[in-house]
Here is the input.
Amino acid sequence: MVTILQLETATQVCSAALSVNGETIAVKELAAQNIHAGSLTLFIQEVMATAGLTYAQLDAVAVSKGPGSYTGLRIGVSTAKGLCFALDKPLIGVETLRMMAQGFLKTAESYTGLVCPMIDARRMEVFTGLYDTQLNEVLPVEAKIIEETSYQEQLNTHQITFIGDGAMKCSAAIISPNAAFSDLNFNSAANMSLLAYNAFKADHFEDVAYFEPYYLKDFVVTQAKKKV
Here is the structure.
C-alpha cells in the first residue's frame, strides 16, 4: 500500500490531499489570495487527521512543481522538502499543467479531444501546454501570449477544451466551433494522486537537496509608483 501526501500551491488554490495506491482518500483546499503560508500546514494536519494516519505511515510527499505563482510554488516546495528531510521520505515533483489536465479528464471519461490547461500570467499571457487524452504532450509547456491566431492549426482538426484560471480570459480571442472553455477548478492536490503513484512505482524521485520549482519565467519585482 503506497500512501502519498500531496501539495498544490501553484495558483490561488491552497490544497493538500492524501492518496493510497493512486486514489484520493482525503483533501482540504481553499481558493483565496495570500493564504498559502498560513494555511498549508494546517491543511496537511487536517487531511492526516481525517485519514487517521501518522506522518511515519507516509511513503512519499508529492508537490506540484509548476509553472505557476512564484510565491505559491516556493511555499509548496519548501514545505514538501521540509517534510521529506524531517521524515526521511522521497520527494515527487508533479507537473502542474499535466495535473490539471488529469483532473479534467477524470471528469470527462468519454472525451476524445485535446486539453489545454492555462494558468493566468497577467494580461493576455498564460502558462500553458497542450495534451491528448493519454496526457502525452502535443505542444510543450510555455509562457504564451494569446492572440486570435493561437491554436488555430490544432483547432482545425481537433476539439480543444481550455481549462484553468487563465482560460476564460482567452475565450474572446480564441474563436472556433472546436474550442470549449471551462471555469472549473482543476488546481487540486486530489488530481495529483494517479500521477504521483505512477512516479512512485517508477522510482521517479527528486533530489530533495537541490530540487527547485519550475518557474518558467524569472521573478520580476515591480515598484509602486510614487504619489505626487
Notes: The radius of gyration is 18 Å. Residues 70-87 form the longest helix (18 residues). The chain has a mean pLDDT of 94. Residues 147 and 162 are 14 Å apart (CA to CA).
